[in-house]
């Protein structure tokens, strides 16, 4: 699914109106029907409904929804905010239709003062104050109303956007003046802010309603952000020829695990083996020998000369991919070995965890990273890497995109919707995965998967996209059998085969 900017959403509406063609008031009627159906799916006609409508088209949608709910025997009270005595054309038309239909039990147009109605736990508030047309934080009477709704015990359904929330950047928004919905019914496409962790508190549950906006515009319009889906990935999946052998299926090198952190090396190595690589070699401190041999008998072990930490870079010409960092520790010796390793490695590299932390501690080394490098930070690791704590997830994402462009590499910012930032400035959000995966070691598994895919011959972009998709899908399949609370990182590895099978079928 493409993610359009607020400006593109506006264009999409206009393009649809011109080319379908459809009158803008009829398009609003279509949107309102879809919204009304979705509301009726969730709340019965015994629910008292209070509709707050703004002066723009979001308000127009809300007035049309109010009329339709009333026609379906809901008790509906409507408050239209027209403090500047200026309604959009379609909002004004829907006000006329509402008044003419005489179905709602109460209609007030607010031009000056407003006495808010009582909102009880039984009330359903329909929030149609502002949608994608918002261009500054809410203030004054609108802000007071939002706070009144948020403090009330009523349930809230937001039309298109929780009022006050911007489509993209909410860094400087006034957070208490944004509606906190229980359900957001967004029209046609998800907006960028809906993918960000710090905006989830406003959305509640999110449903996307198809209102048949122009498929031509949607297909032909270039975007910089998209959400990847299974249908995007299936064509990328490689199938094995019958006559291949382990020598042609790629050899991955994993440098991971300091003493006491052998688990990270085990998880990354096992995940790598499960991701199609023909051979996997693990380079790890001597003291990990016994445990690694038992835990991953399929891997070749290469012992560091040190007992407890990674101390020296290794020859890498025989490998097709390198993963470095999980559980590596952050000793100064390991840091020097890390940059030495990165400098001499010719094959694609994925750096994770302590590998990233050590780069963060040696900012000058950031200039020495090879083109195409992959980094897989979680938000904290990312903030350390760029040396600042971001005040919003939008800001963090923007910095991740800038870093990918600057390095001409890949920054995979992990989260509920992990975001892959590519060298050309494009961002791909992942759609699989669940909160059961918020458990130690699941990042090591992702690193192993990406290394396996790189070794198998996928290019960096595909290895990252397919890797994050398979990782999340394995987590989703595991949760069906095991539940979220008990899921551990090894379970993700155990369900990788099923995830691959699903994409291959
Ligand atoms: N063209 C159409 O018929 C369609 C419109 N749709 C609806 O239209 C909405 C967008 O409508 P609009 O573009 O009219 O915009 P909104 O209704 O979101 O906002 C209306 C106007 O409010 C003003 N405004 C912005 N920020 C403000 C603030 N902080 N305080 C006070 N006023 C502020 C702006 O001048 C803006 O144009 C969508 O969210 C969706 O609900 C959908 O029904 C799809 C089809
Ligand atoms: N709530 C969540 N929803 C979806 N995926 C999640 C969630 N929490 C964690 N994950 C995934 O699990 C992984 C966690 O990585 P990370 O934080 O590096 O873990 P660790 O350092 O313990 O290995 C990431 O790939 C992330 O996308
Ligand atoms: K709204």
UniProtKB/TrEMBL annotation:
Function: Catalyzes the dehydration of the S-form of NAD(P)HX at the expense of ADP, which is converted to AMP. Together with NAD(P)HX epimerase, which catalyzes the epimerization of the S- and R-forms, the enzyme allows the repair of both epimers of NAD(P)HX, a damaged form of NAD(P)H that is a result of enzymatic or heat-dependent hydration. Catalyzes the epimerization of the S- and R-forms of NAD(P)HX, a damaged form of NAD(P)H that is a result of enzymatic or heat-dependent hydration. This is a prerequisite for the S-specific NAD(P)H-hydrate dehydratase to allow the repair of both epimers of NAD(P)HX.
Gene3D superfamilies on file: 3.40.1190.20, YjeF N-terminal domain
Family classification: In the N-terminal section; belongs to the NnrE/AIBP family.
HAMAP family linked to this entry: NADHX_dehydratase (MF_01965), NADHX_epimerase (MF_01966)
Domain YjeF N-terminal: from-to ranges: 9-219
Catalytic activity field: (6S)-NADHX + ADP = AMP + phosphate + NADH + H(+); (6S)-NADPHX + ADP = AMP + phosphate + NADPH + H(+); (6R)-NADHX = (6S)-NADHX; (6R)-NADPHX = (6S)-NADPHX
Domain YjeF C-terminal: 229-503
Biological processes per GO annotation: metabolite repair; nicotinamide nucleotide metabolic process
Assembly and binders: Homotetramer.
Name the record gives this protein: Bifunctional NAD(P)H-hydrate repair enzyme
Binding site for K(+): 58, 127, 163
EC number of this enzyme: 4.2.1.136, 5.1.99.6
InterPro entries noted in UniProt: Carbohydrate_kinase_pred_CS, CARKD, Nnr, Ribokinase-like, YjeF_N_dom, YjeF_N_dom_sf
Binding-site residues, AMP: 414-418, 443
Annotated binding of (6S)-NADPHX, by residue: 57-61, 131-137, 160, 264, 327, 378, 444
Source organism superkingdom: Bacteria
SUPFAM superfamilies per UniProt: Ribokinase-like, YjeF N-terminal domain-like
Cofactor notes: Binds 1 potassium ion per subunit.
Protein's organism: Hallella mizrahii
Keyword Cell membrane: no
GO molecular function: ADP-dependent NAD(P)H-hydrate dehydratase activity; ATP binding; metal ion binding; NAD(P)HX epimerase activity
Cofactor: K(+); Mg(2+)
Keywords (A to Z) from UniProt: ATP-binding, Isomerase, Lyase, Metal-binding, Multifunctional enzyme, NAD, NADP, Nucleotide-binding, Potassium
């Amino acid at each position: 699914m493409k993610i359009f900017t607020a400006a593109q959403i506006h264009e999409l509406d206009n393009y649809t109106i011109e080319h379908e063609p459809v009158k803008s008031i009829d398009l609003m009627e279509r949107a309102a029907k879809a919204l009304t159906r979705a509301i009726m799916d969730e709340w019965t006609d015994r629910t008292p409904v209070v509709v707050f409508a703004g002066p723009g088209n979001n308000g127009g949608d809300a007035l049309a929804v109010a009329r339709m709910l009333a026609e379906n025997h809901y008790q509906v009270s409507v408050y239209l905010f027209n403090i500047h005595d200026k309604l959009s054309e379609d909002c004004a038309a829907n006000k006329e239709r509402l008044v003419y239909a005489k179905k709602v039990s109460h209609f007030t147009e607010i031009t000056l003062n407003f006495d808010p109605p009582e909102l009880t736990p039984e009330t359903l508030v329909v929030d149609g104050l502002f949608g994608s047309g918002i261009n500054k934080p809410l203030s004054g009477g609108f802000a007071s109303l939002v706070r009144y709704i948020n403090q009330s015990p009523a349930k809230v359904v937001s039309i298109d956007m929780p009022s006050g929330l911007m489509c993209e950047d909410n860094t400087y928004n006034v957070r208490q003046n944004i509606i906190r919905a229980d359900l957001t019914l967004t029209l046609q496409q998800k907006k960028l802010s809906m993918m960000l962790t710090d905006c989830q508190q406003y959305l509640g549950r999110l449903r996307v309603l198809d209102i048949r906006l122009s498929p031509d515009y949607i297909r032909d319009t270039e975007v910089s952000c998209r959400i990847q889906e299974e249908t995007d990935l299936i064509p990328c999946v490689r199938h094995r020829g019958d006559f291949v052998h382990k020598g042609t299926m790629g050899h991955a090198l994993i440098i991971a695990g300091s003493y006491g952190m052998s688990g990270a090396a085990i998880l990354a190595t096992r995940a790598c083996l499960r991701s199609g690589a023909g051979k996997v070699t693990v380079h790890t401190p001597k003291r990990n020998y016994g445990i690694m041999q038992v835990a991953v008998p399929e891997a070749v072990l290469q012992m560091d000369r040190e007992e407890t930490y990674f101390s020296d870079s290794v020859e890498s010409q025989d490998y097709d991919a390198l993963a470095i960092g999980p559980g590596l520790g952050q000793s100064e010796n390991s840091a020097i070995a890390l940059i030495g390793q990165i400098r001499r490695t010719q094959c694609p590299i994925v750096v994770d965890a302590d590998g990233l932390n050590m780069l963060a501690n040696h900012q000058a080394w950031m200039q020495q990273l090879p083109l195409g490098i992959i980094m897989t930070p979680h938000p904290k690791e990312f903030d350390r890497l760029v040396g600042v704590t971001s005040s919003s997830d939008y800001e963090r994402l923007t910095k991740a995109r800038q870093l990918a462009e600057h390095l001409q590499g890949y920054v995979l910012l992990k989260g509920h919707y992990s975001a892959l930032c590519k060298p050309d400035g494009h961002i791909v959000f992942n759609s699989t995965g669940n909160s059961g995966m918020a458990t130690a070691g699941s990042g090591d598994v992702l690193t192993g998967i990406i290394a396996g895919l790189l070794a198998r011959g996928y290019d960096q972009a595909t290895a990252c996209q397919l890797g994050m998709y398979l990782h999340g899908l394995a987590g989703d399949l595991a949760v069906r059998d095991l539940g979220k609370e008990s899921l551990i990182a090894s379970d993700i590895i155990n369900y990788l085969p099923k995830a691959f099978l699903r994409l291959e079928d």
